[in-house]
């Protein structure tokens, strides 16, 4: 951090790392961390960059994996604090809940907002679920999905949102256009089984 005191302006910049760890942070019931936090002040106002944060957020389908985010917070014109989270999908996301690996398309998104009911977190996901086994040694894309929604509340009824884990399946299919289908993988498994 730094501090400059000039006759016409007071300017300072504050930065910190490892502010909140993933197990401690709670963003609408989802684990999150603040790995980096910084802001600057010029003449008693936030500088033009506002407040910046970086960290991770964990979807409730995993106990070990998380997605990286950046967040910018700015003071509105008398309307409070405005923020924007940008969460980066990653190619592989471990899901111990289903003993599988989730491959997220870049069209997936996570929206985080604050309203009268509190913090709302909603992940709208597109991608594939793959399964890898050691004995027999197989790796295949089992399912593809579009518009699967995970949230900390049911947002389908804005006047009466129900809190808790919300899940909407979206559209699912077997296999993936870019990987072997479930039927193809099943034939491979059947051949291995009959050879035993």
What can you tell me about this protein's structure?
With 196 residues, the protein is mostly beta strands. Helices cover 7% and strands 62% of the residues. It has one helix at 182-195, and strands spanning 2-5, 10-27, 30-42, 45-57, 67-75, 81-87, 93-95, 100-104, 109-115, 118-133, 138-153, 163-168, 171-174. The strands form 2 sheets. Strands 7, 8, 9, 10, 11, 12 and 13 form a 7-stranded antiparallel beta sheet that branches. Strands 1-2-3-4-5-6 form a 6-stranded antiparallel beta sheet, with no helix packed on it. Strand 2 and strand 3 (30-42) form a beta hairpin. The radius of gyration is 22 Å and the shape is elongated. Residues 177-196 have low confidence and may be disordered.
């Amino acid at each position: 951090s730094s501090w400059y005191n000039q006759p016409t302006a007071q300017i300072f910049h504050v930065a910190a790392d490892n502010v909140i760890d993933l197990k401690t942070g709670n963003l609408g019931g989802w684990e999150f961390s603040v790995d980096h936090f910084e802001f600057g002040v010029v003449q008693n106002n936030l500088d033009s960059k506002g407040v910046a944060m970086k960290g991770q957020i964990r979807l409730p389908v995993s106990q070990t994996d998380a997605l990286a985010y950046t967040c910018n917070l700015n003071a509105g014109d008398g309307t409070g604090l405005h923020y924007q989270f940008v969460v980066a999908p990653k190619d592989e996301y471990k899901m111990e809940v289903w003993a599988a690996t989730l491959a997220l398309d870049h069209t997936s998104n996570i929206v985080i907002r604050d309203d009268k009911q509190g913090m709302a977190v909603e992940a709208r996901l597109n991608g594939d679920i793959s399964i890898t086994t050691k004995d027999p040694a197989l790796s295949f894309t089992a399912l593809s999905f579009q518009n699967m929604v995970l949230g900390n509340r049911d947002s389908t009824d804005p006047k009466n949102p129900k809190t808790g884990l919300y899940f909407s399946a979206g559209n699912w299919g077997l296999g993936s256009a870019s990987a072997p289908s479930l039927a193809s993988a099943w034939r491979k498994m059947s051949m291995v089984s009959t050879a035993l």
